[in-house]
Design brief:
By secondary structure, the chain is α/β, with parallel strands linked by helices. 32% of the residues lie in helices and 25% in strands.
Length: 224
């Protein structure tokens, strides 16, 4: 096995993915491109909405005390990890989808919900419209300062890309460091993320499903 797998997502996902990579028998490189922090926000009147939309477990992890004022609203979650975090936070999750916001919004609409409150990230908020009545950012994923020396281990590795932001930032960092993209392979969690990475990488592959496990499997196919 000649290549290592680089995990670029922020915590707590970084440690979880590193553990999965190492459990698969591969060697992991941990390099967080972003750090997640809570934002100040004011919880709206729950009576103005008939359901809540959660697109990331980070909304529950970093939502703070304001979430307690909204737990009476039925919840619709993107991804089972988000759904699990929501249940642990006291929400009644009516449905969860893999990673397609439009699909889970459609599911909520089909169940008769017309006024969704979306709690999400500052850079990942859904556009207001249709069933999404209001979107509030409760956390932010902020870029970390990365030294060029920290990028050196990525040469010859497969980089896991969990988001379009990570894809774009990886390209910017590699280019600014004067490294060759052709030295790095990319495994993206979706076609959209692969497109955000741009061109020039040694190879680009896309996970069969938008799940961490499938992403690691796609990366393993490049190194085995």
């Amino acid at each position: 096995m000649s290549r290592r797998i680089a995990v670029l997502r922020p915590e707590p996902g970084n440690a979880a993915t590193v553990a999965r990579v190492e459990a698969s028998g591969a060697q992991a490189i941990s390099l967080q491109l972003f750090v997640v922090r809570a934002l100040d926000w004011i919880s709206p009147d729950a009576g103005d909405f008939d359901a809540i939309l959660l697109t990331s477990a980070n909304a529950v992890r970093h939502g703070g005390s304001g979430l307690a004022l909204l737990t009476q609203l039925p919840a619709f979650a993107v991804g089972e990890k988000t759904a699990a975090a929501a249940r642990a936070g006291g929400f009644d999750v009516r449905a969860s989808g893999e990673s397609d916001v439009s699909a889970i919004v459609a599911a909520a609409h089909a169940q008769g919900y017309r006024r969704l409150l979306h709690l999400g990230g500052r850079d990942r908020a859904s556009a207001v419209g249709g069933p999404i009545d209001t979107a509030i950012a409760v956390y932010a994923s902020e870029a970390r300062e990365i030294d060029h020396a920290d990028l050196a281990p990525l040469a010859g590795a497969v980089a896991l890309l969990h988001s379009a932001r990570a894809a774009r930032r990886l390209g910017e960092l590699i280019d600014s460091a004067g490294m060759a993209r052709a030295e790095i392979a990319v495994a993206a969690i979706s076609t959209a993320v692969a497109e955000a990475a741009g061109s020039g990488w040694s190879v680009v592959t896309v996970a069969a499903m938008p799940r961490d496990e499938a992403l690691i499997e796609a990366a393993r196919a490049l190194i085995d």
